[in-house]
């Protein structure tokens, strides 16, 4: 059950259903000691791609959750569902609009124990997700911290996600977000973690680090990020 699990996560791999990963690489990732596999991406996510990846990850015992990016690619069978809301989007649809429509259509199917809201702050202007969601990425650390305080201490969202997808972020920004968040909300960090060293740096402030792109470019380096933050 997602709501019982996510608070213990220190590390997760995010695997994109739109990208190729070999069976050998997938086995190494799933058996690495990571806390969870997140299936998600912002481009080219299809139902077929999601089902294919889910069935392959299901050969292993690692928890597997879907980070929903389109309604059409939701399928049963995951251990839980993460719902991103891009707090610094200039467009209402990415904050609450698509969510409202989805709840109207599928709200009756939702198991509250398996669904988790993530307040995203998207900070790399060059990431596809920033363009897609019209994120206002040029924010000062105080402005990011204000989103963290809002998401954490006021709204008590389960997760605040500092997202630098594609590049390693500013650790001072991450620290300030942590300080502003309060103790109800888990801080997720993702973006440019491509070594044990960077994994350690980010996990000094983030409760959970998310590792994505490097798993396609350098599997060994990706696996090293697990050992860097977890005592196995
Ligand atoms: C049958 C069954 C199991 C039913 C379950 C019912 C259920 C769970 C219903 C869902 C209800 C609900 C509220 C759904 C939300 C609908 C929705 C589409 C919301 C919008 C989400 C959103 C803001 C998407 C934008 C993209 C985004 C933030 C994706 C997150 C992943 C991410 C940031 C990937 C990074 O992107 P990447 O591909 O790596 O690309 P770049 O590196 O280039 O950025
Ligand atoms: O792909 P990277 O840059 O590792 O980022 C991970 C994750 O935060 C993407 O949503
Ligand atoms: Mg990516």
Automatic annotation (TrEMBL):
Domain of life (superkingdom): Bacteria
Needed co-factor(s): Mg(2+)
Known catalytic reactions: sn-glycerol 1-phosphate + all-trans-heptaprenyl diphosphate = 3-heptaprenyl-sn-glycero-1-phosphate + diphosphate
GO biological process: glycerophospholipid biosynthetic process
Keyword field: Lipid biosynthesis, Lipid metabolism, Magnesium, Metal-binding, Phospholipid biosynthesis, Phospholipid metabolism, Transferase
InterPro entries in UniProt: GGGP/HepGP_synthase_I (IPR039074), GGGP/HepGP_synthase_sf (IPR038597), GGGP_HepGP_synthase (IPR008205)
Binding site for Mg(2+): 16, 42
Subunit structure: Homodimer.
Name the UniProt record assigns to this protein: Heptaprenylglyceryl phosphate synthase
Species, as recorded: Aureibacillus halotolerans
Primary gene name: pcrB
């Amino acid at each position: 059950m997602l709501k019982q699990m996510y608070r213990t996560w220190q590390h997760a791999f995010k695997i994109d259903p739109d990208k190729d990963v070999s069976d050998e690489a997938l086995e190494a990732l799933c058996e690495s000691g990571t806390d969870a596999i997140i299936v998600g991406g912002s481009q080219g996510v299809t139902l077929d791609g999601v089902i294919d990846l889910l069935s392959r990850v299901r050969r292993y015992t690692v928890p597997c959750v879907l980070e929903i990016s389109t309604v059409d690619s939701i399928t049963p069978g995951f251990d839980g569902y993460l719902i991103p809301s891009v707090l610094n989007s200039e467009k209402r649809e990415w904050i609450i609009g698509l969510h409202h429509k989805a709840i109207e259509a599928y709200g009756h199917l939702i198991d509250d124990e398996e669904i988790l809201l993530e307040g995203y702050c998207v900070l790399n202007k060059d990431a596809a997700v920033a363009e897609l969601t019209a994120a206002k990425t040029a924010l000062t650390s105080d402005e990011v911290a204000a989103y963290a305080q809002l998401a954490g201490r006021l709204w008590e969202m389960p997760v605040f996600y500092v997202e630098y997808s594609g590049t390693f972020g500013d650790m001072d920004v991450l620290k300030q977000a942590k300080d502003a968040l309060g103790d109800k909300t888990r801080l997720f960090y993702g973006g440019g973690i491509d070594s044990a060293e960077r994994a350690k740096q980010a996990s000094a402030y983030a409760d959970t680090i998310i590792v994505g792109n490097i798993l396609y470019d350098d599997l060994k380096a990706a696996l090293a990020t697990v050992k860097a933050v977890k005592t196995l």
